[in-house]
Design a protein that fits this description.
Layout lengths: L5 E4 L6 E9 L3 H8 E3 L13 E6 L5 E10 L10 E8 L1 H13 L3 E2 L4 H8 L5 H12 L3 H12 L1 H23 L9 H33 L1 E6 L6 H9 L17 E7 L2 E7 L9 H16 L2 E7 L6 H12 L3 E7 L19 E3 L8 H16 L11 H22 L4 H19 L5 H9 L6
Parallel strand pairs: 1-7, 8-10, 8-11, 11-12, 12-13
Antiparallel strand pairs: 1-2, 2-6, 3-4, 4-5, 5-6, 9-10
Bound molecules: guanosine-5'-diphosphate (GDP).
């Protein structure tokens, strides 16, 4: 590689026991020789994959820090280039000083995601696996982390490679048949071709079905808490989040705007929104809050409808129940304040397609059952969230949809016994489109954009 040698702090910003600076590129070892003085021997001959203990020195030979140098030789490193990692003390000032020193010695600052981009460009990772790295770092729940690990290990890549392999076989079949007179495909070949195309199409469809689950693991299930004022929505949010994020008062309408928290329930990430309620608003600020509640209810994937089990249903409660009957989102009805005398009955919620749970947000009872119900409902909506091959990027979904269209065209052309040329064009279209998901056929602008979303130092 003729590219520059790059360096960056690889560990999180702030004070830590150790901090790591990573240097990658053809001059990585040369940089190390200039700034690192081993306690024993010299660095004339740097032994790869061995920890060297010594001092990191300034240009005037003063000591900046002491630490460990870990050299790795191309191509057996994360980036596929020569890499050295300098483990120093994890203070932000000392790390910064060592980093500046690597720049003095010939490296330049690495851009966000540049190490992983190099790994991709050097063929160490395909695009979906590289994105798995980023997702693992950003994962906010155990299941998201597992999905990211499987993506990193190549679950999605392999599935796509298998579909492409099948398509290539079909394309070869057609090309072999071009020598046949009058462009006719012999019946046996046509049957085999149909089988290939159908199998590829259904595999693409299967991936598209998993896309929503993939998105949920990345972004979280949009969960909206609704209910009239004072039923205990904020208390519920707090109980689930475990902090005092929402203000709990007994003055109706205090949650004027929407409060959003991210939580993880049985490993499933949830974006939890506490809303202002649907009450006829008295002032302008509340009106905005109510309008937002309406919008959030329309977009919600899961609705937690809260009622006060210790008082009769009010007009507003009845309105909400009527709304719930018409809604498509998964709904769970929560009768809060079960610690008080109970007035509400399950029959009050007839006609709403939702489980009814008794809870006390204040005493914390019934919350485990609620968590279990949420997890079960999400699984019901999205199927198996543990399948590794879950596309989750717009880019991937769009490419899969395009591939599906090509394949359905190819199926139609084959059924109509039209020219094999057209089939071949569509199969190639599907093949290339799927290749783009892996990063085989995407332009450099897109590559730059994808990697710029990575964090600095990765
Ligand atoms: P919101 O307006 O729906 O967000 O309701 P809040 O969470 O602000 O609660 C309204 C009032 O009900 C507060 O005084 C809470 O302390 C009280 N409250 C909330 N949950 C419970 C509960 O489970 N049991 C009892 N007894 N009171 C509760």
């Amino acid at each position: 590689m003729t590219e520059d040698t790059i360096s960056q702090i690889a560990t999180a910003y702030g004070a830590g026991g150790i901090g790591i600076i990573r240097v990658s590129g053809a001059d990585a070892f040369a940089v190390a020789r200039q700034i690192f003085r081993p306690v024993r021997g010299d660095l004339g001959e740097i032994t790869p994959y061995r920890a060297h203990y010594g001092q990191i020195t300034a240009a005037d030979s003063g000591v900046i820090d002491e630490g460990i140098l870990l050299p790795m030789r191309a191509p057996h490193s994360y980036t596929g280039e020569d890499v050295v990692e300098l483990q120093c003390h994890g203070g932000s000032i000392v790390l910064r000083e060592v980093l500046l020193r690597t720049w003095e010695a010939g490296a330049r600052p690495a851009e966000a995601g540049e190490f992983t981009k190099r790994a991709f460009l050097n063929g160490r990772l395909d695009l979906t696996r590289a994105e798995g790295v980023m997702e693992l770092i950003a994962a906010k729940s155990a299941r998201s982390a597992r999905a990211a690990r499987e993506r990193m290990a190549g679950a999605l890549s392999q599935e796509i490679a298998a579909i492409r392999h099948r398509l290539l076989g079909a394309i070869a079949r057609i090309e072999a048949g071009i020598d046949f007179p009058e462009d006719d495909i012999p019946a046996a070949s046509a049957a085999a071709l149909r089988e290939d195309i159908t199998a590829a199409a259904s595999a693409v469809q299967r991936l598209l079905t998993g896309a929503n689950a993939g998105r949920i693991l990345r972004e979280g299930v949009k969960t909206v808490i609704v209910g009239r004022p004072n039923v205990g929505k904020s208390s519920l949010l707090n109980a689930l989040v475990g902090t005092e994020r929402a203000i709990v008062t007994d003055v109706p309408g205090t949650t004027r705007d929407v409060i959003e928290e991210e939580i993880s329930i049985e490993g499933i990430p949830l974006r939890l929104l506490d809303t202002a309620g649907l009450r006829a608003a008295e002032d302008a600020v509340e009106q905005i809050g109510v309008a937002r509640t309406e919008q959030h209810m329309r977009d919600a994937e899961l609705v937690l409808a809260v009622f006060d089990s210790s008082s009769e249903l009010t007009e507003e409660d009845h309105e909400l129940i009527a709304r719930l009957r018409e809604m498509n989102a998964e709904t769970i009805i929560l009768c809060n304040k079960e610690d008080c005398a109970r007035v509400l009955r399950v029959a009050d919620f007839d006609g709403v397609n939702a489980p009814v749970l008794m809870i006390s947000a204040q005493a914390g009872t019934g919350l485990d059952a609620l968590r279990e119900t949420i997890a079960a409902r999400v699984q019901m909506m999205e199927g198996d969230l543990s399948d590794g091959a879950l596309p989750n990027k717009e880019r991937e979904v769009e490419a899969l949809q395009r591939a599906a269209r090509h394949l359905s065209e190819a199926e139609k052309t084959l059924a109509a016994e039209m020219g094999t040329d057209f089939i071949s064009i569509d199969l190639r279209g599907a093949y290339d489109t799927l290749g783009a998901i892996l990063g085989e056929t995407v332009d450099t602008d897109l590559i730059d954009r994808i990697f710029s979303e990575f964090c600095i130092g990765k």
